[in-house]
Amino acid sequence: MGIVNWATGQQALGQLFYEAVKAHHPFLYRSILDVGCGYGIAAACMCALGERMTLIDVSQSVVDGQRHRWRHNRQVAVACSTIHSMGGSYDLIYYFLSFHHVADIMAELSKIRSLLAQDGELVICEMSPNCEAPFHQNDIVPHDGFASGHLSAILQGNGFRVAQVEELATLRKDGVDYGIYVIRSFVETL
Which are the contacts of 50, defined by CB distance < 8 A and separation ≥ 6? Predict the structure, then answer.
């Protein structure tokens, strides 16, 4: 686990996430949903893991940029949307440094359960909170990240079985370090 500089190493962080997911799922997913795709840091690598991939974000300018980026790739669809307006079935739903933007976590997890294919997995790459220096500084976001144990408990309390928690890297932004980890989970079956 190394240090990744936010200003210069975003692609490296996307690559580390891709490698962590691929290590536990070496064959192609039929369908992938990237929730809160942002500038496509993870999508650039993750598209290699799926037959089809859908990127969603609530920012129209971000979506326009992603549509331009993926305009020649018929395997990738891009939509200005929240997960709540999505339908279909996905073998992998992932959040790459975007779950802390979710205001209603319980509703979000309920929707995820309805969208995951049988044996589909939810993978969340998230940052640990830093009380002294929140990652988003003055931007208003619902959460400043989650301790991995706290996020695991939230998932388990909402119908998911946590299969793995893995420290991914230390992200350095403006001289402040944030721990980055990945949680793999599945819908709990009775």
Answer: 28, 29, 30, 31, 32, 75, 91, 92
Place of tokens 């299969």: 163
pTM of the model: 0.95
Largest CA-CA distance found in the chain, in angstroms, rounded: 46
**CATH code, domain carrying 81:** 3.40.50.150
Is residue 40 a part of any domain in this protein? yes
Residue 171 bridge partners (DSSP)? 4, 178
Please give the residue range of the domain that contains residue 84. 28-114
d(CA 186, CA 120): 7
* Domain assignment of residue 92, yes or no: yes
Residue at 107 is within a domain: yes
Q: Tell me: the pLDDT tens digits for 9-24?
A: 899 999 999 999 999 9
State the sign of the Cα–Cα–Cα–Cα dihedral 109, 112, 114, 120.
negative
What is the Cα–Cα distance from 121 to 113, expressed in whole angstroms?
10
User: Residues 63-86: what's their mean pLDDT?
Assistant: 96
| Number of domains composing the chain | 1
